[in-house]
Design goal:
6-stranded mixed beta sheet, 5-stranded mixed beta sheet
């Protein structure tokens, strides 16, 4: 029998192609450091993660350790963390808005990264007023045993100095003998440093006066129109100075009544604040010739009273004796009474003659004002 022909060998399957490599992540911050103002505005800290491997990674997660005094706050346009905006079918960058926290904060994508795809994890950090700064450390991982370390230095700068001051004042009375009698106006002032700079505070009043007391050493000067007191040392922020000033009285004796308003101004560096208060004056009972209104003229004397009209009806005389008018000082001539047996009414008395009362001249002010001058003068 004829020999059988050998069968051709079966075709070999093609050699398998190269298998895709495992995912590989890289992470980098926008800069080597982030600068913060102590007690100031926050700053963004973006960390970009890229998959340089050949296959899709697992969900990306970053964990950061914050230094003392540094806090993370929610990022994003509305101040809250949002979900990642990832599209696994397109090679494009995305941004994840990260949540806030203290100590340790974590931010993740919730999905993996395709090869050559990247995502930016946006942290937002802020420094407290007493923060010393330091370094932010952390790691980025996709769930695999391999993670990427990140480190960012935090530089905290002191806040810029800002001058600010606020003044509050009110008035009272000092050394009053009786209510409304011979008192001296007293001004109480509180000036507060509302800024961030430490500078002396100067308090000025638009009246002549003298410092009675102060909560801190102050140097005061006074003129006829103003009184100024300045602290001898700078006033720290959020600290206050309390000052009491005795205002000068009119001519050293009586409080001015022509303008009861007093303007108090506080100055700290380039900042100033003013307040206008009213210090009411009091009349002096029993001393009408003392004019507490800034003028030298005594009050006008009262006009003389007109003589009283004569009586229109007959005046019956009592047997006990004639009646003598009590109001007019001049004597009135007696009219003899008619005999009792007679029925005829007595003749009307003659109209009394009165002389106008002379105005009482004000007593001299020298003997009265002299002993009070030293008692009322400020200082």
């Amino acid at each position: 029998p004829p020999a059988q022909q050998p069968q051709p060998p079966a075709p070999q399957p093609p050699a398998p192609g190269p298998q895709p490599g495992p995912p590989s992540l890289t992470a980098s911050a926008a800069g080597a450091s982030v600068s913060l103002i102590a007690g100031g505005a926050p700053a963004d800290l973006p960390i970009t993660v890229r998959n340089t491997g050949g296959s899709v990674s697992g969900p990306v997660s970053a964990t950061l350790n914050l230094p003392p005094g540094v806090t993370a706050i929610p990022s994003g346009p509305s101040g809250f963390a949002g979900a990642p905006l990832l599209r696994l079918n397109a090679k494009q960058s995305s941004t994840v808005f990260c949540p806030g926290g203290t100590g340790t904060v974590t931010c993740g994508t919730g999905a993996g990264l395709a090869p050559n795809e990247s995502v930016t994890l946006l942290f937002r950090v802020v420094a407290a007023a007493n923060s010393p700064g330091g370094e932010i450390t952390g790691s980025v991982s996709d769930g695999s045993p391999v993670s990427v370390r990140v480190a960012v230095r935090v530089v905290v700068q002191p806040p810029p100095t800002v001058d600010g001051v606020e003044v509050k004042a009110h008035g009272s009375w000092l050394d009053t003998l009786l209510p409304g009698l011979l008192g001296r106006p007293l001004l109480h002032v509180t000036a507060t440093n509302t800024g961030t700079s430490a500078k002396p505070i100067t308090v000025t009043v638009n009246r002549h006066g003298a410092r009675l007391s102060s909560s801190t050493p102050m140097t005061c000067t006074s003129t006829d129109a103003s009184t100024s007191c300045a602290t001898t040392a700078p006033v720290e922020p959020r600290s206050s100075v309390h000052l009491s000033i005795k205002l000068a009285t009119w001519l050293g004796l009586l409080h001015r009544c022509d303008d009861p308003s007093v303007v108090v101004t506080a100055v700290l560096g380039s900042a100033s604040d003013s307040q206008t208060i009213r210090v009411d004056c009091w009349a002096l009972p029993g001393l009408p010739w003392l004019v507490p209104n800034g003028t030298d003229a005594p009050p006008a004397p009262p006009e003389p009273q007109a003589p009283p009209r004569p009586p229109t009806k007959p005046h019956l005389q009592s047997p006990a004796g004639p009646l003598t008018p009590s109001t007019p000082p001049a004597p009135v001539p007696d009219v003899p009474p008619s005999p009792l047996p007679k029925i005829e009414p007595p003749k009307p008395p003659a109209p009394p003659t009165t002389t106008p009362t002379a105005p009482t001249a004000p007593p001299p002010s020298g003997p009265l004002l002299g002993p009070l001058l030293g008692w009322l003068l400020p200082g």
